[in-house]
Amino acid sequence: MAYLPENRAAPRRRSFLNIPATTRHMSYRRAVGAALAVAFGGFVPGAAIAEANEDEDHTSIGLGAIVTPKYEGGRDLQVKPLPIIDIHQGRFFADWRNGVGIKAIHEPWVTVGMSAVYMPGYKDTSVPPGVGKLGDGAGARLFAEFRFGDFQAIVGGIKTVSGGTGGFIADLSLNYEYELNDRVSLKAGVLTTWADTKYTDRYFGINQAQSAASGLPEYHPEGGFKDVSFALSANIGLTERTILTVSAGAARILGDAARSPLVQRRIQPLGVLALTYTF
Asked: In b/e form, how buried is each residue of 95-104, taking b as 16+ CB within 10 angstroms?
C-alpha cells in the first residue's frame, strides 16, 4: 500500500468481519513473521524470512507447532511446540525475529533497531555420537527494514556475546505479500545469510578431540555464505483478532558449511502451523 503524508491519511477500508483492512493486513504479517522467525531461527539465529510493517502498538500471542531438522544439516526431523510472542509498544519491541530491543528510527518506509537475540546451538543427542553439544548463546543484533508497498527488505547482523556458537552472522531477506481475498493473505520470502569463520567453525567444524571420539574426519571450515532459504505462508482470518498461519519452506546449506561431515542433508525442510491472537 502507498504511504501518504501525515496530513493526507488514506481512508481505512473495512471488509471481513468489519476489520479495518490495514489492521487485518498487519495481523497477517505479524502471524507469519513470528512463525517463520522461529522456523528459520534454527538456520539463522535471530533472523527470519517474513515480517513486516509495524505501524501500530500491539501485543500478539499464539501457539502452534513447527517441523524442522534437529540441527542445521541434520537428517532427522522433529516436531516442537511453537510459542509466539510479538509485542510492539512505542520504540520497544519483543518478537521472535529481532529479539528484545528498541527502534532507534521508525518511519513508514524504514525501521532501524538494535536488540538482544537467542543463538541456538545443538544437543549432543541430535548430532553424531562423539561430537558433543554446542551450547546456546546470546547475541547483539543491529538491523534495518525497508518497506515499498507490498515489498519488504531486511538487512541485519548478529554478534555473539555469550554461549557456544561465537562469531558473526549477517542476513538479507526479501519478502512480498499478496492479498488473495478479504480473509486470506499469501506471503513469500527469500533469505540468505553469511557467517564468519569463527561461527562456521564452531557450528560445522570438527576438532581433533571430536574426530577421535566420533570417527568423523577433522574439519575446519572458513566463513562465507552459509545458506539460502525460501518460505511461503497462507494466513487465514478466523475472527476479528485471530489468525491461522500455515507455512512451508526449505533452506539450502552452502559453501564450507555444506561440506561439513556434520551435514547429512543439505536441503532442510520446515513446516509451521500456528494460531495467533492480537490484543
From this structure: bbbbbebebe
Q: Which of these, 241, 235, 221, 225, lies nearest to 274 by C-alpha position?
A: 235
Supply φ then ψ for residue 36, to 5 degrees: -75, -30
How does pLDDT run across 54-69, given as a tens digit for each residue? 557 889 888 989 899 9
Maximal C-alpha separation, the chain: 69
Q: Which alpha helices (DSSP H) does the chain contain, by range? A: 21-41, 197-204, 208-214, 255-258
Q: What is the DSSP letter of 14?
A: B
- 20 residue type, one letter: P
Rounded Cα gap, residues 206 and 211, in angstroms: 6
Cell numbers 488473495 correspond to 180
Q: What one-letter code names the amino acid at 160?
A: T
The torsion angles phi and psi of 57, rounded to 5 degrees, stand at: -65, 140
- Other beta carbons within 10 angstroms of residue 277's beta carbon come to 17
Helix (H) or strand (E) holding 196: none
Q: In the numeric block, which cell numbers belong to residue 9?
A: 491519511
Q: How far is CA 149 from CA 3, 18, 86, 207, in A?
A: 8, 23, 22, 48
Per-residue pLDDT reduced to its tens digit, 207-264: 999 999 999 999 999 999 999 999 998 989 998 889 998 999 999 999 999 999 999 9
Q: What is the pTM of this model?
A: 0.82
Q: CA angle 197-208-196, nearest 5°?
A: 5
- What is the 8-class DSSP label of residue 8? G
